Amino acid sequence: QVQLVESGGGLVQAGGSLRLSCAASGGRTFSSYSIGWFRQAPGKEREFVATISWSGGSTYYGDSVKGRFTISRDNAKNTVYLQMNSLKPEDTAVYYCAGTRSGSSRNGSRYEYWGQGTQVTVSS
C-alpha cells in the first residue's frame, strides 16, 4: 500500500507563502493516483483544499483558497506539492494529503490513503 508523508508546514506571517510536499512510497504506480489536500482547524470540520488528477491535467480548488493556492505534481519524484500564497490566519490548520485510484474528488471519503498531516500556522 502507498504511504504518504507531508512536509513543509510551519509558522508564517499573514501574507506569506509556504510550499507543502506530499511524498509517496510503497505504491506500485504513484502516477495512477489522484491526490487531494485537506485541512482541519481546531473546532472545525475537515475542509477540502485542492485535488489533482493522475496526469496533472485536471485540478480543483476549494472556494476559500482559489487564486491563492496551487496544486501540482511531479510523478517522476512521487511527490505532490501545494503552493500556498497570500496566507491568512484562517488558513491555520493541519494539512493532510490523500490518495485515491478512483479519480479525483472533493469528498474525503473517496480517498484510500492518508498522510499524518503537517501543521500550518499563520500569525496576524
The outline comes out as: globular
Number of helices: 0
Low-confidence stretches: none
Strand content: over 45%
Radius of gyration over all CA atoms, rounded = 13 Å
Number of strands: 11
Question: Distance N terminus to C terminus?
Answer: 40 Å
Helix content: under 10%
- Round the mean pLDDT to the nearest integer and report it: 93
Assign the structural class, choosing from mainly alpha, mainly beta, alpha/beta, alpha+beta, or little secondary structure.
Answer: mainly beta
Largest beta sheet, briefly? 7 strands, mixed
The SSE string, one letter per element, is: EEEEEEEEEEE
Description:
The protein is mostly beta strands and about 120 residues long. The protein has no helices and eleven strands. It has strands at about 5, 10-15, 20-25, 35-40, 45-50, 60, 70-75, 80-85, 95-100, 115, 120-124. Strands 2, 4, 5, 6, 9, 10 and 11 form a seven-stranded mixed beta sheet that branches. A four-stranded antiparallel beta sheet has the order 1-3-8-7, with no helix packed on it.
Question: Can you lay out the helices and strands and say which pair or pack?
Answer:
Blueprint (H helix, E strand, L loop, with lengths): L2 E5 L2 E4 L4 E8 L8 E7 L6 E6 L6 E3 L7 E6 L4 E6 L8 E8 L12 E2 L3 E6 L1
Parallel strand pairs: 2-11
Antiparallel strand pairs: 1-3, 3-8, 4-5, 4-9, 5-6, 7-8, 9-10, 9-11
